[in-house]
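User: I'm putting together a teaching handout on how sequence relates to shape, and I'd like one worked example. Could you take Ribosome-recycling factor from Halocynthiibacter styelae, show the sequence you're using, and then write out its predicted structure as tokens right after it?

Assistant: Happy to. First the sequence, then the structure tokens directly below it.
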Amino acid sequence: MSDDFMLDTDDLQRRMDGAMGALKTEFASLRTGRASASMLEPVMVDAYGSRTPVNQIGTVNVPEPRMVTLNVWDKALVGPAEKAIRESGLGINPQLNGTIIMLPIPELNEERRRELGKVAGQYAESARVSVRNIRRDGMETLKKAKNDGLSEDEHKIWSDEVQDMTDKAIAAIDAALTTKQEEIMQV
């Protein structure tokens, strides 16, 4: 088996890149004192019997630098959308105006900046866990191959490659976290 065994490193890399992409999306949702339509992307609303992204139940606009509005298309979803935004951890207090939910972005004080830094850290840890789970999947595949006749040397080479991919992905996550935390703490 050792002659024809090929670990699908492209799949592992694609999955690790996906974890990094998800982290970047979550980081984009963390506000730094400026309004951004992307800050609502991770908010999920209980709509029509399933969890639906908030941008699929209404139109998200940024009419001014410190205001985001959500024009909800279905009147029945205004309450669930407001609740989802309030409970999302964004630190924004929604205000209703008919089917429009207004989200005034307050100035960030030092305490709120620290809180956002902690949230960024939680997002990064979640991405690290994802990468480690992908590493574990790769190692389990190698273990099965070893039991099926993969040589010790081949096993070591593939294990080192999977570990190298993991180390690079974790380093990229740490770098992104450091950058985001610096951005959050800037006044």
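A couple of points you could highlight for students: Strands lie at 44-47, 50-53, 58-64, 67-72, 95-97, 100-104. The longest strand covers residues 58-64.
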